[in-house]
């Protein structure tokens, strides 16, 4: 009267894929590599932003001082 259960190796169990484990490892390694790549790209993008901003501000200050110097020279201010 006890219930009989079939083991995992019984005939009703699905066939095992021998490549499933290595495929899962490759998949998760690729995900981790992509996540690290995105993190690296975001960090460099932030650095590039600040470098370009500093260069643009330096160019604007340089042009403003040169322009004011020329205005003073021409008009004798």
Key traits:
single chain; mainly alpha; 1 helix; rod-shaped
Explained architecture:
- This protein has 77 residues and is an all-alpha fold.
- The protein is 73% helix and 0% strand.
- It has one helix and no strands.
- It is rod-shaped.
- The model has no long low-confidence stretch (mean pLDDT 87).
Topology:
Blueprint: H1 20-75
Name the assembly state. Answer: single chain
What is the helix content? over 70%
What's the gyration radius in Å? 34 Å
Span between N and C termini?
Answer: 111 Å
Low-confidence stretches: none
- Structure classification: mainly alpha
Classify the beta-strand content into a percent band.
Answer: under 5%
How many DSSP H or I helices? 1
Mean pLDDT: 87
Query: What can be said about the biggest beta sheet?
Result: none
């Amino acid at each position: 009267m006890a219930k009989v259960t079939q083991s995992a190796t019984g005939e009703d169990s699905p066939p095992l894929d021998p490549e499933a484990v290595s495929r899962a490892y490759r998949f998760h390694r690729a995900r981790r590599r992509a996540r690290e790549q995105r993190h690296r790209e975001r960090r460099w993008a932030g650095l590039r932003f600040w470098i370009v901003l500093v260069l643009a501000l330096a160019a604007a200050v340089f042009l403003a001082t040169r322009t004011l110097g020329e205005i003073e020279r021409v008009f004798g201010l």
